[in-house]
């Protein structure tokens, strides 16, 4: 069982795939889509949960998603059909870094998938290329809540330089020519719900499919992830979601 299959199973009860509650996601989208007729783009859209939520209840909005995973895009198409979005949602199977469009977008999202574009600043650079005038970027990125411990780094397979603290993360964003117009720092409760959902969904699948060749791998992956979270990065790794506009040039 590869990482994409594990991720799909682990996120089946938390499809946003980030430590954000449903209420938080709704509030962020209300701030990001004030008119209700915007065109949006999700770079690294996965199973399309952000796009489906953004377009549902906003019949004048249109969205496009880009991802390399055929299985994730198949799930996104199923979700789009279930939400009766019709041709308002277009999905592209390609590298988000290589994606081009003939028009600009009012909102470009990259929440929890900046790694697909090489990190936070490259993701913002890609967003800038796709934005229409006065458009916004919505990014979600990790940061160190506290100094990372060896246990946290081992659990995340990360280096201390992989993330900054929150203030430095925002400083990097503003230095790159962006102004935050809204933001949300994931709470401890949101993190716990995300991690319990991740490990619990995977464990439940393994227990329900004892004869499946992937059952043992799923069970072991869930146990290792849970241990790494509880004994490693819980309370150490944070997550911030920023709604940004381009800063006018002086």
TrEMBL record:
GO terms for molecular function: methyltransferase activity. Residues 41-136 form the Methyltransferase type domain. Keywords: Methyltransferase, Transferase. The keyword Methyltransferase applies. It holds the Pfam family Methyltransf_12. It comes from the Bacteria. GO terms for biological process: methylation. InterPro entries: Methyltransf_12, SAM-dependent_MTases_sf. This is SAM-dependent methyltransferase. It comes from Streptomyces daqingensis.
């Amino acid at each position: 069982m590869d990482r994409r299959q594990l991720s799909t199973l682990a996120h089946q009860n938390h499809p946003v795939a980030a430590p954000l509650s449903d209420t938080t996601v709704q509030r962020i989208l209300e701030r990001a889509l004030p008119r209700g007729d915007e065109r949006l783009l999700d770079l690294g859209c996965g199973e399309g949960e952000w796009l489906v939520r953004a377009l549902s209840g906003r019949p004048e909005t249109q969205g496009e998603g880009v991802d390399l995973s055929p299985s994730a895009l198949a799930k996104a198409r199923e979700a789009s059909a279930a939400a009766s979005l019709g041709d308002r949602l277009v999905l592209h199977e390609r590298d988000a870094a290589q994606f081009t469009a003939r028009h600009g977008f009012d909102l470009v999202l990259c929440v929890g998938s900046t790694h697909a574009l090489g990190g936070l600043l490259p993701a913002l650079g890609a967003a800038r290329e796709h934005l229409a005038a006065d458009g916004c970027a919505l990014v979600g990125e990790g940061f160190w809540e506290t100094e990372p411990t060896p246990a946290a780094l081992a659990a995340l397979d990360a280096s201390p330089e992989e993330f900054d603290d929150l203030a430095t993360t925002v400083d990097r964003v503003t230095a790159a020519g962006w102004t935050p117009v809204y933001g949300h720092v994931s709470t401890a409760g949101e993190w716990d719900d995300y991690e319990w959902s991740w490990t619990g969904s995977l464990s439940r699948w393994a227990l329900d499919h004892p004869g499946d060749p992937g059952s043992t791998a799923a069970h072991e992956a869930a146990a290792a992830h849970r241990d790494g979270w509880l004994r490693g990065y819980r309370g150490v790794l944070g997550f911030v979601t920023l709604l940004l506009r381009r800063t006018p040039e002086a």
